[in-house]
What we know:
The chain is mainly α. It has 17 helices and no strands.
Amino acid sequence: MSQASHRRAGTRFGALRIAAFRRLLGAGMAMQLGNWVQRVALLWVLFELTGSAVQLAGPAFVSGIFVLVVSPFAGPLADRFGARRVLMLVALLQGLAAGAVAAVVLAGQASVPVLYALAVAQGIGSSLNGPMRNLLVYDAVGRDLLRNGLALNSVTGNLMRVVGPSIGGTIVAARGADLAFGVQAALLMLAVVLVAKLRIEATRSLVRSGVWSELRAGLQHLGENHAVRVNIFVALLASTLVYPYLQFMPVVVVESLGGTARELGLMQSSIGVGSLVGLWYVVAGRGGTTTMLWAACVYMGLIASFAQPSALPVAFGMLVVAGVAHSIFSTLNQALVQLNAAEEYRARVMGLFSMTGGVEPFSTLLLGVIVEAAGVATALAVYSGVAAVVVLALAVHATPGALRRRAGVPGG
């Protein structure tokens, strides 16, 4: 290998040289694999029990309420107790919940309330899991390697997105949802062990002021920081108008593609397949706000289109390309929100950033009503199409400035 090739490899895999980051990566892989297996099992069982698109939106609605309520406290919790301890506790509680549901399903007592209870645990976990892992990536690798670390984290996450739904679909089809929930519980216990072994010194100062004072200070910083506001607005737009499509994948697969649980797993994996390509760009430390906005526009436009009735390979291919754009958009946005925030406000800003996911259930519930009234193809085209147009306007506005600055950060 040439010296230039060695340098490129060093750039792409620099964060992997850090032992703490490798352990964090392994814990994240276990959590994400378990969550994707759970998602397929939960949606399929719920669809079998109810046959309702509105009911498919229900668990996401309940989960998202907790994301909306708990996420703002992620920063103060991290500053008081440390992100590592909070992440350990979250994984443990989610694992216990998944094990309990596995036992209930095995006993033949599956019901809508049981699945909603699991959604509550998932919501609490999601509200804290993401911010804590992102903060720990920064603490493990530092500012210079943050893009690289988050991109590698996303690479493994999308590997799990590729294999997780397929594994989940195969398990549900061959054995049943009880084993799928049991697999998730075991993976979460593995994550607890790996996080317990982390030895990371936080790079931010811990604070001891009142929780509400900390939240107010974080909101004030957000009001003064235009770059962070752009990051959070685009994340909010995606959570409101684009991400809800995932809850209606069973409807798309059955009604538009004529598929089964196995095809549902394949379609859930498709975004992850494309993401593995797109993340190769971010792993090298490239990209800024303009790149993020254009990638978001492409992703949202493709999601608006893929649910139109077509052959499975066509829909799968569209989601693969959407995955390329999504990996660039989401990973850059996660990195930029920390890079753009002042160090003393980074944890609180990450909590507010995570809070954007809390609006998804409200939008998902409305989308479920539209799906039943107008069909899944029309509903997704309208929802994600609006988001694509708004982000297109932001991208066009940002591009001339980026051309003047050339390689300026974070505008490139």
